[in-house]
TrEMBL record:
<dbReference type="InterPro" id="IPR026050">
    <property type="entry name" value="C1GALT1/C1GALT1_chp1"/>
</dbReference>
<dbReference type="Pfam" id="PF02434">
    <property type="entry name" value="Fringe"/>
</dbReference>
<keyword id="KW-0808">Transferase</keyword>
<feature type="domain" description="Fringe-like glycosyltransferase">
    <location>
        <begin position="2"/>
        <end position="164"/>
    </location>
</feature>
<keyword id="KW-0735">Signal-anchor</keyword>
<keyword id="KW-0547">Nucleotide-binding</keyword>
<keyword id="KW-0812">Transmembrane</keyword>
<comment type="similarity">
    <text>Belongs to the glycosyltransferase 31 family. Beta3-Gal-T subfamily.</text>
</comment>
<dbReference type="GO" id="GO:0016020">
    <property type="term" value="C:membrane"/>
</dbReference>
<dbReference type="GO" id="GO:0000166">
    <property type="term" value="F:nucleotide binding"/>
</dbReference>
<keyword id="KW-0328">Glycosyltransferase</keyword>
<keyword id="KW-0472">Membrane</keyword>
<dbReference type="GO" id="GO:0016263">
    <property type="term" value="F:glycoprotein-N-acetylgalactosamine 3-beta-galactosyltransferase activity"/>
</dbReference>
<dbReference type="InterPro" id="IPR003378">
    <property type="entry name" value="Fringe-like_glycosylTrfase"/>
</dbReference>
<protein>
    <recommendedName>
        <fullName>N-acetylgalactosaminide beta-1,3-galactosyltransferase</fullName>
        <ecNumber>2.4.1.122</ecNumber>
    </recommendedName>
</protein>
<keyword id="KW-1133">Transmembrane helix</keyword>
<comment type="pathway">
    <text>Protein modification; protein glycosylation.</text>
</comment>
Amino acid sequence: MNAVNGTWSKRCDKKLFVYSSAIESPLSPYTIHLPVPESYEHLTGKVRKTLEFVYQQCNDSFDWILKCDDDTFIVMDNLRHMLAGLDPQKPAYLGFRLNPAFGKYDEYVPRGYMSGGAGYVINSRALHDVVNTGFKRGACREDGGDEDVEMGKCLDAAGVPMHSTLDSEGKETFHLQSLHYHLTLKNETVLQQPPKDALNSGPWGEKCCSNYPVSFHYVKPVEMYMFEYLLYNASVHMSDNRDSGHL
């Protein structure tokens, strides 16, 4: 929480860190407690209750809501730019789109769903629709299963359209893995093909990522501070090589 709080989330208009009421959470005006056990197996229940809480308590105070993990780094400036041209009153669902045709969920989410680890974004109208239609119809589990798949089911049942987050060159802006993974395989060889569950067939490996990335997953706390420095503090002197002398 400290790394997220001290880096990218400073640029959010409002942020919430969600904890189970069964454990002690850090003292912070940004934390809320929900009656869901604190474990990965109950992430669906936690996210559902969070969305219901936001809908009931703050639905009139925001246009967009981002859900992401505590090891996701978000470049808020790029996300704001992406969302600037969209109408928050027309339902929308954005993120790294996964193709369920390669998994066991294709009969439930025929359009695919957005990766939870990469983070996904819905607007106020989509939140209204998923709470009042998807959840009430029982289109997804109240708890259990894979959270991003279950939310995909309910958003699909509510008729919330997906929007592409590829840039003008067809490159990804949301990333479901770490930057290192997207650039190379674990054995350091260049990744030639996208993962089989990625819906898009854009470039991977050395040319994997947009010049205007929105998110990376599996980012360690120390790496968040590195991202923060490189993105918002470091600069590069651009000079004409003819005037730089011999190096």
